[in-house]
Amino acid sequence: MAGNATLIVRNGRIFTVDRGRPWAQAIAVEQDMIVRVGTNEEVEKTSGSETKILDAGGRLVLPGFNDSHIHTSMAYEEAYSAQLGDAKSMEEISAAVRKHAEAHPEYRLVGGTGWKHEAALTDQRYPRKEEMDRIISDRPLLIVSYDGWVGLGNSKFTEMAVNAFKGRPDHLGGMERDPDTDEAAGVFHNPGDLTFLAGDLSDLIRESEFDGLRWIFSQLPKYGITSVHDAQSDFRSFDAYERLRREGGLLSRVYIAFGHTRQTTDADLEQIEDIKANHSDEWLRAGAVKLFIDGVLDSHTAAMLEPYADDPSTSGDTKYSPDEFKSIVEKLDRMGFQCMTHACGDRGVRTALDAYEFAAERNGRRDSRHRIEHIEMLSQEDVPRFKRLGVIASMQPMHAAPITDSVYVRAAGQERMRSSFPWRALDEAGAVLAFSSDWSVADLNPLPEIQAAVTRNWSDDSQRTVTLEKAIEAYTLNGAYAAFEEDVKGSIQEGKLADFVILSDNLFDMEPDEIGGAEVLLTVVGGKVVYRSDRFDG
Questions:
Q1: CA-to-CA distance for 207 and 210, rounded, in angstroms?
Q2: In sequence order, which ranges of 114-208 are alpha helices (DSSP H)?
Q3: Cβ of 484: how many Cβ atoms within 10 Å?
Q4: DSSP reduced 3-state for 414
Q5: In Å, what is the CA distance from 433 to each residue of 36, 71, 371?
Q6: Is pLDDT above 80 for 158?
Q7: Are strands 141-145 and 151-153 parallel, antiparallel or unpaired?
Q8: In the prediction, which pLDDT does 362 show?
Q9: CA torsion, points 81, 521, 285, 341, in degrees to nearest 10?
Q10: Residue 375 confidence (pLDDT) above 90
């Protein structure tokens, strides 16, 4: 091995996420693999005449971040839409959309994303298509809320949606209709359905898909994200991924989950099986299927065990009956797929756990690593089931932030918020936690997510925070585990892929509430520097 290293990082404060050797000083890389971890003296023995040396200058070095729930294939919505997250009213939303439309007369569809529900609601009602026509009427317009669960369209867009849904099940798109006329109102409670249709509407929405994908992968290295799990893709997106890889734009590794709905056919599953079997290298892999069992608390579509605090007439609903969901999961499990189930409400989570348990009983226990995504509310009775069933808790710490804005408190009530986002309780019960952003719902940057995980407090901290070590592990090694890749990445160990980052500050020396202010100075993927900040001088 001596003399073969292509890259050495020395003088680092390296947190390896390897419990056998948690700290080191230097790393040696040969091509795309880590070949030595140890002291400067130990690692420098691998140096040769062609070895590139990077001096970390005593800075913190971590494994590359693994965002285990992100919507990269939908980046076209973010990259080419008006950004509405700062708007505080419908008037501000309208002004931002008009400005965006005027700046981009070439866009056939005017898009907007990121608006908060409280900004758009008037008397607990979303604007109808006629009101959206006052913003833009000469082109189709669709603006989507920050959580992706409500879309508002003008008349031109709504007409296209009505035509696209002809002959399809009524629930698709969650399209509101006027109770008196049955006419489509222009409000869509599941606008994600619109992007996965075939035909003119989805072509219009997704015409910038490849450009959006290329854009988001140019951004990931700036935040030290070396791997992502695309939480809802399809065949069209997969083709775009393959093109991006061929063109050299795939700067982070990708694990893909294909979306599953009632419209998914056996032929679709066979195609997913084929992709899974033939795309299993370290850059582009498929292996999971994404399902939805409920919605979100904001719009009262998350399935809860008890009625909503601000609307006792409803407790939300599941998208499938428990028996139907069990049948679907059992089939997917039998075919060897990993299931990723979106479940925000405590009843939604329980329904998913019941289905996973049913599948194991029918098919036999295997290393399935089924996952539940989000887990915003959870019954104490269900906490130990995660470890017992081997289910991964895939959670997003920044999603806890809305409690300070009263949105979740209003919906769930203060008492239930004590059992919300229970990553500490799950960790102490032995569950595997995998952290992520759910971008574009939240910011890409993992460091504010880690800060949220170690600082969040709601009256008491009995279920709230985890240690910094645990939070980093959940954003690195556990993300790799959640994609069956812990043997090749997720920690800085000999024989693993050379994916790591150098930070501006040592998180272990910072006040917990300042962690989000640290920056990534250098990102290395497969032994190659893919991002270097102007601030890095090593």
A1: 8
A2: 117-120, 129-133, 155-165, 192-195, 200-205
A3: 16
A4: helix
A5: 28, 19, 10
A6: yes
A7: antiparallel
A8: 98
A9: -60
A10: yes
Distances (CA, A) of 87 to 125, 404, 506, 537: 17, 18, 35, 39
Q: Give phi and psi for 418, each to the nearest 5.
A: -65, -25
What is residue 405's predicted lDDT score, i.e. its pLDDT?
56
Are residues 175 and 166 in contact, defined by beta-carbon separation less than 8 angstroms?
no
Tell me, what's the pLDDT at 408?
A: 83
CA dihedral 361, 367, 368, 372 (to 10 degrees): 100
Residue with tokens 């959006």: 212
Q: What is the 8-class DSSP label of residue 6? A: S
DSSP per residue, 86-99: T--SHHHHHHHHHH
Distance in angstroms (rounded) separating the CA atoms of residues 166 and 173 = 12
Residues 8 and 28: their CA atoms lie apart, in Å, by: 5
pLDDT score for 403 = 59
Find all residues with CB under 8 Å of 536, minimum gap 6, and list them: 502, 521, 522
pLDDT of residue 1: 44
Residue 175, phi then psi, degrees to nearest 5: -75, 120
Q: What is the pLDDT, as a whole number, of residue 400? A: 84
Would you say the pTM of this structure is higher than 0.85?
A: yes
Give the C-alpha separation, 87 to 534, whole Å: 32
Cα–Cα dist 168/186, whole Å: 17
Say if residues 54 and 9 touch (Cβ distance below 8 Å). yes
The one-letter amino acid code at 279 reads H
Report the DSSP pairing between strands 253-259 and 225-233.
Answer: parallel
Cα dihedral across residues 47, 49, 55, 56: positive or negative: negative
Q: CA angle 281-8-42, nearest 5°?
A: 110
